Amino acid sequence: MISLSPPTICNSAVYTYPKSRSLRVLWTLEELGMPYESIKADILCDAPEVPSPHPRGKVPFLTDGDVSICETLAICTWLCEKQPATALFPADPVRRAAINSWISFALTDLESPVWNLLKQMIFVPEAQRSAALTHYFKTEAAKAVAMVDLADNAPWIAGDDFTLADIFMSHTLFWAKLGGITLSETLENYVNRAFSRPTFTLAQQRNNQ
Asked: Is 197 exposed, middle or buried (0-12, 13-18, 19+ CB in 10 A)?
C-alpha cells in the first residue's frame, strides 16, 4: 500500500528584492525547512506593478497567515520562535544571549558603517559622492570588522552550531568585502563556510529570481 503524505500548506509569503536584506529571511526559512512563497516587489519603481506592503515600501516584508511583519530581524526571530527547539535560535537563555549579542553587533557596529559606505560607493550619484565620507565610513567599517573573531577557533560565530547570528554576521561581512574591506583568513573562511551551505544557495536563488 502506498501512503501519501498530506500536501504542504504554505502560509508564509516574503516580499523580496535581489541583493537585499530579504536574503536573510529566505535563508532563515530554508534553515528551518519552512515552506514559503517569495514575491519580488518593485521597490525601485515610482509606480510598481508589485508594491511591497511594507509601510515604507521596503523589503523584506512577511505575511504569515493573519500576521504581517516588517524589518528583517523581527521577521527572522518570529520564524525562529515558531520552532524554538532548533539550534538556529535555541530556547536556552545563555545560548540565545550570545546569539543576540552578535546579531546586535552585526546590525549596529558593523552594518551601520558598511551600509553607509556602500551607499556612497553605489547609490549616491557620482557627482554627489563625498571622498571624505567614503574614507570615514570605510575606516569605521574596517574597525568593526577587526573586532570580529571566532572564539576558541569555533566554526561559527556563537559556538559550534550554525545559528541566526551567522546569517546576519556572514552576510554583513560579505557586504564589507563589497565595500573593499579586507577580511582576515579566518573570516574569509567563515563567510565561505556559511555561503557553502545548501540552504544559502537555495535562498540566494529564490531571492535573485
From this structure: middle
